[in-house]
Specification:
By secondary structure, the chain is mainly alpha-helical. Helices cover 62% and strands 5% of the residues. The protein has helices at residues 7-26, 41-48, 70-78, 94-119, 128-144, 146-154, 158-182, and strands at residues 54-58, 82-86. The chain has a two-stranded antiparallel ribbon. Helix 1 packs antiparallel against helix 7. It starts with 6 loop residues before the first helix and ends with a helix.
């Protein structure tokens, strides 16, 4: 079995996950509390006005030597300590983001197809449950595990990571189902 033989489950799982993601983020309530409003949003907006899109840290410590500076220690103790992502100004344009998400779904499905093509022996163990297990596991890891690093290193709330794991589980079940059915 080759990856090209699995074009139907690649496409089907990509579409299913795309629509599941739309429902999860637009209809379901569990991500509505992932982001909080700052107490002085207008002050923060004014302070960030003119900052180029990119990732920033406060306090910014450019190298290990700066960690030895007592003034840097004071900045960390006094706070705030923050990781900030600044996007380009303007009304959100969902079109490019949706296209990128669909391409990402295809990439995950191709990785699932690769693992199936290398581990499932045609006729021997290529049954629904085996294909479901392989593709579902790969999809879960692909959609969910990176959030753990975000919680460890960048203070993403563990509750948000848990909710993203729930999303990843749903995506994995849909991916596993599509591959098990169509492979």
């Amino acid at each position: 079995m080759s990856i090209m033989d699995l074009w139907q489950p690649i496409l089907a799982s990509s579409v299913l996950v795309f629509f599941a993601g739309a429902v999860i983020w637009m209809v379901m309530p569990w991500h509505k509390t992932d982001w909080q409003k700052l107490s002085d949003e207008e002050g923060a907006r004014a302070a960030l006005k003119g900052v180029a899109p990119g990732q920033y840290s406060i306090p910014h410590c450019p190298d290990q030597a700066a960690f030895k500076d007592p003034a840097m220690h004071d900045k960390f103790r006094e706070g705030p300590v923050a990781f900030i992502t600044v996007k380009a100004s303007g009304m959100p344009n969902m079109g490019p983001n949706l296209v990128q998400m669909f391409v990402y779904n295809i990439a995950v499905a191709v990785v699932c197809a690769y693992f199936i093509s290398r581990t499932a022996i045609p006729g021997a163990d290529a049954d629904y449950l085996t294909i479901f297990r392989i593709s579902g596991t790969v999809a879960f890891v692909s959609y969910g595990m990176a959030y753990v690093q975000e919680s460890i290193w960048f203070a993403r709330p563990w509750s948000a990571t848990a909710k993203n794991f729930l999303d990843a589980l749903i995506y994995a079940l849909l991916t596993g189902g599509a591959f098990g059915w169509l492979a």
